[in-house]
Each structure stands twice: as structure tokens, then as C-alpha cells.
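Everyone, carefully examine this protein record:
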Amino acid sequence: MAILGSGLLPTRLGFTGDPFFSNVVFGCHFETLTDIRGHTITGSAVISSDQKYFGNSSLFCNGSLFSYIGVEDPDNNFSVETDENFTFDTFVRFPSLGTTNYFHPFIELGNPSSTGFRVGYFNASSPSIELIIDNSPYYFSWAPSIDTWYYFSVERSRGAIYLKVDSTQIGSDIINPSPIVATLNNSIGASILNISQRAICYFDDMRLTKAYRNISEVPLVEFPEQ
């Protein structure tokens, strides 16, 4: 059982670990509100055993004002240099898609209206994934179903960005080598600048990796912790 196209098995099963582990700057299985790098996680989203892709639980954001989490990054590990490769991936499940023009933020780093980054699902008249980097918005057509787990990723390699759902690319490549300037506090499930934008979804096995992982298949096991 290979994961993430690496051909390797996780250390949890006693085999060789994920070769990208050393480049993971945030990673959480949402069994607790503690990530594998020891970041402080705060907020009112809850660990829920109602739904899970791996393990016993996932993170549930119910769309209310404070139902999200913030991740402290005092050492500025989440920022990405110009042209630096990165991968963001997570499992996501929607119990509701909200009303038309409802935005479900997945992750927001810094201020996306200037030098930050955010990505999420936009339930507009043409449902899509919205990605913003360096104040440049991009839209990728995608219409998910409720009560279904999806494996979502954003990958950048040498300035080219690819979005994938269940390891299959959606939309065209985009070229944006811009840096991402994160802040001390970054959010999952919310836009900090717009309080009406709150995710209604479950998240499981989420990672931010400073490497291009070229995801080619849906993981069969949760990612390793070492």
C-alpha cells in the first residue's frame, strides 16, 4: 500500500517513513488539537468522532463565528520564499454547502489581500475552488457532494501551481512564484478578514509541507509522525 506516490509505507506500521517528513511545517491528524510539530492550536472548532477518514476523529467547523482554529507560528515557519516549492493537503467533508455565494475557507496564511495565501470552496452559481496568492485570485471549477470525503491538495513546483481533488488535477496549471508571508496566527476554517466566511466541514489529516510532493494517489493510511 503506497501513499502519496512515494512507494513507501509509514513508520506507524514499522516500515520506512515518509521521505517528506523533514519538510512538514504543520501536520495534524485531529485526534487532539496538537500538531506533530508542537504548534499551539487555539479556537472553538471541535474534535469530533462523528466523522473521520483515518483514526478516531476529525476537526469539525460548523460555520459559526468562532468555529475555526488558529495556529501560532512564532518562528515564521509557514512563510514560503519566492519560487519555493510547497504542498498543502487535507481530507475534507461537507455536511452542508451553505447558501449560494457561501465561502468555506480551508486554510489562510497571512493577509491574502496582499502577500498572504488562502484556499477554499466557493459555493457560487458556478461552484469552484478559490485560491488567492499575492492578491491574485484563481478559480477552479469543482462541485462536491455533501457527506462525502475528498482528498484535496495544492502543490507548487518551480512556480507552477496545481490543484487536485482525489489526486486528479482540476483546472489548468497556474504560474505564480510569489512568496507567501504568513503571520504569527494563521487560520483553518476561517477568513480572519471576513467574519462571514466560515467553513462548514470536517477536516482530517492536514499538512503543510515545504516541498513539492507530486501527489498521484489518495493515501491509504494516515501520514507518519516521524
Notes: The chain has no helices and 15 strands. Residues 13 and 224 are 9 Å apart (CA to CA).
